[in-house]
Amino acid sequence: MSGLYVHIPFCESKCGYCDFYSIKRYKDSGFASDFVDTLTTEITQKSYLFKNQTVNTVYFGGGTPSILPLDDLERIFRAISDNYNLAPIVSNSNLSSIDSPLSSLECTLEINPEHATDEYFSHLQRLGFVNRLSTGFQAMTDNGLRYLGRRHTVKDNYRYIELCRKYNFNNFSVDYIFGYETLDDFQIEDAFRYFIDEGIPHISAYSLGIEDNTPFMLKLRKGEIHKMDDDFYLRQFLLIHDILESNGYNHYEISNYSLPNLHSRHNSNYWESVPYLGYGPSAHSYYDGSRSWNARTLQQYHRQIAEHQLFEENEILTPDDAFNEYIMLRLRTRKGIDIEYLTLHFSNYIEHFNKILRRRDLIEYLEVNDGYVRLNINGLFISDHIISEFFV
Ligand code: SF4
To answer: Which of 6, 7, 10, 14 to mutate to test the pocket of ligand 1 (most atoms within 8 A of CB)?
Structure first.
């Protein structure tokens, strides 16, 4: 089992909070062809690394993948299918319901709401290989969207859902941001009531972070926006958790909720330490106990691939790194740490692990049952702090 991630590093503008690597390009403006040439070369170059793997998930993320003409997306996917052993593809139109067999390929495409048109969706449906969609709604008021620096409107969000239904893309996810000054609890209740009524299969809810080198950091320094306190974040985090869990959603990772069996298989593979390869500028890979990175900027990336360099950097995980990584990935999830697995694979760390587990200041945030150690809902909210306490 393995996954592939393709990073499309272009956006039409920069959202206020975003610190992903992306450069400004306009949709269908003919900019993509050199990039797609390099990307398909990279996909071919790296294929021998996974010659014994079956690929179960492919994820087109960014940036803004929907900025690419769909013919280019098809060219990228053909390079993948010609060079890797893909699990069988069940196209969205052949799915009688929203169940996609776990043995089939999950192929996700991120689409920005403003790019959702009849023409785009019908072309995508004809291509047949994308069977899961993900989009950043981020807010369900036009004020909220303006605050966050998004290019679309709430009307675009509504149209997006209509098109998903019309073209039978029934396995899809929406992102939502909370924890900023103009967002009140009533707006959250309205947004999530709408999501529930529409039966949105998967929702990712992120608290707004103000990162270095973002437009928001600049505004924060100038006093044009304000950071909220932890109580405000916690209240909105719990509000979303309560609304969704009481309506049948499974809160399966800090920021992710799904209806039964509709979790993101691609992201779940990351948390299960399943090997993956990443393509495109700044993409990461993980396989054979090592982590690797591509060059960060587009220019350096073109050079890296032209020089037949598989990665810009590569790091073999030490036993300590592997333990820390297992703790970090598994405590993010509601499934948690499998004690039997820990005993089998990290026996040298069990004494250290149990010592931290018994700490009085942490005990109120942890649950131990059914052979698993996991964070409870208050623990999930401060997961970074608790996870770091377990590190060696
Ligand atoms: S949030 Fe998405 S669309 Fe906005 S700048 Fe970042 S990658 Fe681009």
So the answer is: 14
| Residues 264 and 332 occupy one common structural domain | no
In angstroms, the Cα distances linking 234 to 123, 180, 241, 377, 382 are 42, 12, 10, 10, 9
Tell me 29's DSSP state.
S
Determine which residue's CA is closest to atom 6 belonging to ligand 1: 18
Is residue 94 over pLDDT 80? no
For residue 164, the model assigns a pLDDT of: 97
Tokens representing 359 are 């700490």
For the entire predicted model, the pTM comes to 0.95
Residues 59 and 170 in one domain: yes
- 3-class DSSP state for residue 71? helix
265 shares its domain with 340: no
- Residue 121 sits in the same domain as residue 214: yes
Residue 145 lies in a domain: yes
- Identify the residue whose C-alpha is closest to ligand 1 atom 7: 63
Q: Supply the CATH number for residue 231's domain.
A: 3.80.30.20
According to DSSP, the β-strands at 2-8 and 54-62 are parallel
Ligand 1 centroid–CA 123 distance in Å is 23
Domain that holds residue 328: 321-392
